[in-house]
Design a protein that fits this description.
- By secondary structure, the chain is of the alpha/beta class.
- The protein is 32% helix and 16% strand.
- The protein is built from 11 helices and 10 strands.
- A 5-stranded parallel beta sheet has the order 2-1-3-4-5. A 5-stranded mixed beta sheet has the order 6-10-9-8-7.
- Helix 9 packs parallel to helix 11.
- The longest helix has 13 residues.
- It starts with 10 loop residues before the first strand and ends in a 13-residue tail after the last strand.
């Protein structure tokens, strides 16, 4: 994978492949990017609403295609998550994505699109999005981390060592492999489809929000029965926020597999949410 670092004056395409935005979160998007020397191009899905979706499927697909195909767009960022990305998977032009690879940014429901791209050999950034995170008060550090990475670049061999929650799950050891995954609910939902993450020999990253421990149990149970947990070489755990802590469930499913596990990674629906 080779992406060029963004430069001052570059345009970032903002698309909404999942849930709809609203006026309050849309208005600050362009000024936010301008504060980092970038221009925002909001595609029609950002201002559309079709119930719980940001416009009909055809509109959201067209926006994705247009943003990647446009040579004037240096990176593609999703406005927010919610629901809807999975509806698009079998209708996206993967040849177009391969021909016009560029940084693709999002998380939560966008996990489905990251999985599609990974199937095509394309990487993405699991990172905060404007309407979900970056335009909100107190998230300046997340914005600086994301845009700093995009404009500085990340060289092969770079080591990432953010401050971790020292009470989080740990299983010692060394694991090496492709980093896959994202939102646990989406990782589980893709099992049994052609778009499921390829876990064999990979390091599986999961995070989630608003899921009670019994539901995390059900999701991890699905991954275990599907062979995903056995196939992975190690595990990286992001934030699990919004309800009772699933710490014991995560320990029960992952702690005794004898594979390296690093919990407390500052990425996901919690704060901070680093790329």
């Amino acid at each position: 994978m080779t992406w060029r670092a963004l430069r001052e004056g570059d345009t970032v395409g903002i698309v909404a492949p999942a849930g709809p935005g609203d006026e309050a979160t849309l208005a600050p998007v362009a000024p936010l990017l301008a504060s980092f020397g970038l221009r925002a191009r909001l595609y029609p899905s950002c201002t559309a609403c079709h119930g719980y979706l940001a416009g009909p499927d055809a509109l959201r697909i067209d926006d994705l295609h247009a943003a990647f195909a446009d040579p004037g767009v240096a990176a593609v960022m999703c406005l927010r998550g919610g629901y809807g990305s999975g509806r698009l998977l079998d209708r996206i032009d993967t040849g177009l994505l391969r021909a016009h690879d560029k940084p693709f940014i999002g998380y939560s429901d966008i996990t489905a699109l990251h999985a599609l791209r990974a199937r095509e050999g394309l990487a993405g950034l699991h990172a905060p999005m404007p309407a979900s995170d970056l335009v909100k008060a107190g998230r300046e550090g997340d914005a600086q981390a994301l845009f700093g990475l995009l404009m500085r670049g990340c060289m092969a061999g770079a080591a990432w060592s953010p401050a971790l929650d020292h009470g989080a799950l740990r299983v010692g050891g060394v694991a090496e492999g492709m980093l896959v995954g994202g939102n646990l609910s989406l990782v589980a939902a893709l099992v049994g489809t052609p778009y499921a993450w390829r876990a064999a020999g990979a390091i599986l990253f999961v995070e989630d929000v608003g899921e009670e421990p019994y539901r995390v149990d059900r999701l991890l149970g699905q991954l275990r029965l599907a062979g995903v947990l056995d196939a992975a070489s190690g595990f990286l755990l992001g934030s699990f926020t919004g309800e009772s802590s699933p710490h014991e469930v995560l320990r029960d499913y992952l702690g005794d597999l004898g594979k390296p596990l690093l919990g407390g990674w500052p990425s996901g629906h919690g704060t901070p949410n680093l790329p």
